[in-house]
């Protein structure tokens, strides 16, 4: 059965986890399908925004427990240590691929986002959650540590003590508390509708400026020194000024019409 669907319309790619009967739990096929979906969008110039969601009652309940039995018979070094996707292994790429997609990624989160599920959501630029959503960095429950990209992104979102408590305890937190921590961007009674509305607005912005903004944000968060960030600001801006997308943005604003970016 298909684990992930990708639908592209009006420059918005809707990526949906389609294992709703299993709360979109991550088995090997789901992991591979998520990574494949993300990789396919990295070079799609028609896509301006991605919306990531899960069908059924949950965004993603984390690793399918049946996988524990499969992993028990494999050498963990052989399974985890090879770098199959740049700096990441296959499991880490579930999160990291969305940071590498060159356009904004919005996660619409509902039900639960546990373990690998929260790490998947953290790969997005923006997370919109239903108020009743529960989130947990759950690996410690199983005697493990986060290993699906979470430790590459968590320190950018929350304070060190908050991150450590989440990792050490594996306690679930509600969406309101998660928003206060920095894990959730905003709350909505219909997170998918809110994500699609936001995606529609972002898709009307200059595509080249939006991609530049994501690159610049990534660079600013990379730990580069102030001088390097200021230079990168200037470099990205110089590449935009006077170009067709920027000129169309100016004309559309002045003429009070929707832009038409070619």
From TrEMBL:
Protein name per Swiss-Prot or TrEMBL: Enoyl-CoA hydratase/carnithine racemase
Protein's pathway: Lipid metabolism; fatty acid beta-oxidation
Entries under Pfam families matching the protein: ECH_1
InterPro entries to which the protein is assigned, alphabetical: ClpP/crotonase-like_dom_sf, Ech1-like, Enoyl-CoA_hyd/isom_CS, Enoyl-CoA_hydra/iso, Enoyl-CoA_hydra_C
Similarity comment: Belongs to the enoyl-CoA hydratase/isomerase family.
Transmembrane segments: none
GO MF entry, a single one: isomerase activity
Source organism of the structure: Thalassovita litoralis
Single GO BP term: fatty acid beta-oxidation
